[in-house]
Structure formats: structure tokens, C-alpha cells
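Usage

Read records sequentially. Each one opens with the input sequence:
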Amino acid sequence: MEHDKNSTPSAKPVNIAELRAMRDRGEKIASLTCYDASFAMVQDRAGVDFMLIGDSLGMVIHGGNTTTPVSVDDIVYHSRCVAPHLKRAFLVADLPFLSYATLDRALDSSQRLMQQGGAKMVKLEGGREQASIVEYLAVRGVPVCAHLGLQPQFVHKMGAFKVQGRDDAAAEAMIHDAHVLAEAGADMLLLECIPSELGRRITEASPVPVIGIGAGPHVDGQILVMHDILHISPMVTLGRTPRFVKNFMHGAADIESAFRAYVQDVKSGAYPAPVHCF
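and closes with the structure output:
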């Protein structure tokens, strides 16, 4: 499908209030990971609502098998590459493995991501056990996105990258975690690799926007790893494409067209299709 490169979304910068307004009016939020200036400018022009400096860079940029070796320095560096080139998109940055293990470390890491990296929100993994960290950051002016479901930083604890929340007990625990984290001050939730029905239940109960990656169509928005939708990530090239990934380069004239197709499909509800869901 052709996408008009001359049709540019409103240049008004996206912020937390606008993300909430999008949720309230039923407009789906389209987001992608990003790690450098060139892709940041193209994504911004294509209408991506927010970009995540994900610790996924440990896999798609550094070529590792997990995200755990990624450091705060790494995230700051890539955030600093992206932030100056965003006219509209909101910038979120991952707090990497163990960088928020204590209150003081969480605050110091968040300060660096926001002051040195230019991020406007930080993301951390974990359930209700992170509530004190979320609250500590939130009351000090740090916007927080809480990440539930499959948590890549916990892969050595979980044993594998696999769907979470399949049984009733696990689903109820995740619903409770989402409530506790929002009450603690999280401004956004991210759900990864969970059944669509659980994604719906959490979204309907959540007072804040809910973004999904492999969490079904009922969440408030979608996020994917940029390299996955361009069909160039290590997992894709090794033939281990996650079920929730769609190749948006297929049929696209160029990379910007692929990004525009992704944004359009998220906004229209065409993505994710049932084939992408659990």
C-alpha cells in the first residue's frame, strides 16, 4: 500500500497528557524502538508517537543473546543520539539490568537518562515488588513506564523467553501487579507476550495507557523492535521470528514507507491481526 510521504502528522510534541488523551479518545498509540539519529528522524517524520531506547540494543545493536549486559552508559549514549532529532515523538528510555536495584540507584540512573540522555520517561521491569521504586521516582518528578509479562532482564530467572500469564493464578497476579504499579505512580504500562484476553482485562482496569508487544489488539497501543519490523534483526535472520512480529518491509518502497505502514496499521487496528496474538 502506498503512503504519502508529504502527509506529516501534527508537529505538536507528544507528552504524557497527550498519550492519555489518545487513550481517552480511542486513538491507538504507535511506538517503536530507536537507537540513532538517522532512524529517529525518519520515525518522527512517519508519525511514530513515542520511541523507546530499549535495552534490546544489547541484542540488535551489540549482537548479544540477552539484554542483561547493557549498561546505563549505553542507554544514555543512544538516548543522546536520538533525543535532539525528535520534533514530535515522546522519548522513553529503559533502565537496564540492576540499574534500579535500590532506591538510590534507581534515582541516579533515572537522573542520568533524563539529564544526560534527554529521555522524558524511564521504563523498568517487574511487578508489585517494584512499587516502592516507582513511587520513589514518581514523587520526584520522574515519569515511569512499568513493564509486565515477559521481562527480558529476568530471562535467566524465567529460564526462557516465553508467554506469561497463561494460567488463572498468573493472570490474576499480573492484573494485581498492574493495579499496584499504577497506584504507585506509573504513568504507563507495557505488557509483553501475554494472552490477548489478559491484555484486554488489564487495559480495561488500568487508569493509565497500556502498550503491548505481543499482548493482543485490546491494549491502547503497540510497540515493536524496529529491527524486527524491518526484517533485519538477528532473531529474524536466524529464522526465529517472534509470533507477534510483522515484516513491514514486505511491499514497502523504502524504510520510511515501512514505518508509515506500521503506524497506519496500528492506528486502524489492522495490526496486530489474530495471527500475531496469543
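Summary fields computed downstream for this record:
- The domain at 16-276 is CATH 3.20.20.60 (TIM Barrel).
- The longest helix spans residues 168-184.
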